[in-house]
Amino acid sequence: MPVGTAGSVKGLTATHLEDIGAQIILANTYHMHVRPGEDLVKELGGLHGFTGFTRPFLTDSGGYQVMSLTALRKRTEESVVFRSHLDGARLELSPEKSIEIQMKLGADIIMAFDECPPYPATREEVQDATERTARWAERSKRAHLREDQWLFGIVQGGVHDDLRAQSARAITSIGFPGYAIGGLSVGEPKEDMVRVLDSMDRALPEDQPRYLMGVGTPADLLDGIARGVDMFDCVLPTRNARNGQVFTWGGKLSIRNARFARDPQPLDPLCRCPTCRIASRAYLRHLHLSNEMTGAVLSTLHNLYFYLDLVGRARESIVAGRFETFRQETLRGFSA
């Protein structure tokens, strides 16, 4: 799911996103709350009417932003009080408030309010956040009144297998149409992330969607799919594109590199995205070095198309019964 934090995937229009096959995008509850405000968005037709993107939206709960603003926050059982990153204004989020905002935004899939523990954190801190996440999930479900939205529960537990299992039991016992795996890709070692995903594969229902939040690299997506994950979001393809780093079936390229100055090839000869059909590596390097916004737009189109193509091919390989072969061949191509 491409990330449109403020209701917009940076540099792209709704038409761009539909043209490259984006089926759903993510918007950020906290950022939409502080600007322009959920009441204005509701007045103008919800996220779909406000942005012009007619395909589904997913909104996160704001819990991750509360964690990232930890230096400014005060958390109680009832809610979290913190300061706006824009103007320092006092803000308060609770499960009920988060759900109220998301109902007004009108996303198709919304998330229960959770507490995402940072990494590193003590076991006691992680356990406290995990237990509070379950209590807040119950409150989130009670507060959710829209039948045209799916509300997902979020599993926490850090890198502790027993806390992850505890969280999975608690959240699934409440009952949601889908489940998110939170608290990963926050600085933990890759082997810990993979181990947690192995445990989640065993702990979560097989017949409901699983969403790995905030992950990740192309290899991370393949690792997640191998462990039963269905949905991903990450800023990596868009943020890296703006900095001149593009993803290809042969691995990453830093397009600002001098070796591309006279290279007439597309970014990836195997890619059918709009950028690879019209632009050479040499031209894209020129655009990035000239700080032309077109360079960021074309690179973003390519990276998102690549990510969507990657998961599309993964789906096809699963249907064909050859996912592991596809995965190993793709990983070898990345490291070639």
Chain-wise SSE layout:
Blueprint: H1 14-19, E1 25-27, H2 29-34, H3 38-43, H4 46-51, E2 57-59, H5 63-68, E3 74-75, E4 80-83, E5 90-93, H6 95-105, E6 109-111, H7 123-143, E7 150-155, H8 161-174, E8 179-181, H9 190-203, E9 210-212, H10 218-226, E10 231-232, H11 236-242, E11 245-248, E12 251-254, H12 274-278, H13 281-289, H14 293-319, H15 323-335
Parallel strand pairs: 1-2, 2-6, 6-7, 7-8, 8-9, 9-10
Antiparallel strand pairs: 3-4, 4-5, 11-12
Helix pairs in contact: 6-7, 7-8, 8-9, 10-14, 11-14, 13-14, 14-15
Structure description:
With 336 residues, the protein is α/β, with parallel strands linked by helices. It has two domains: 14-234, TIM Barrel, CATH 3.20.20; 239-335, no CATH class. 48% of the residues lie in helices and 12% in strands. It has 15 helices and twelve strands. The protein has helices at residues 14-19, 29-34, 38-43, 46-51, 63-68, 95-105, 123-143, 161-174, 190-203, 218-226, 236-242, 274-278, 281-289, 293-319, 323-335, and strands at residues 25-27, 57-59, 74-75, 80-83, 90-93, 109-111, 150-155, 179-181, 210-212, 231-232, 245-248, 251-254. The chain has a seven-stranded parallel β-sheet with strand order 1-2-6-7-8-9-10. Strands 3-4-5 form a three-stranded antiparallel β-sheet. The protein has a two-stranded antiparallel sheet with strand order 11-12. Helix 9 links the parallel strand 8 (179-181) and strand 9 (210-212). Helix 11 runs antiparallel to helix 14. The longest helix has 27 residues, at 293-319. It is globular and about 60 Å long. It starts with 13 loop residues before the first helix and ends with a helix.
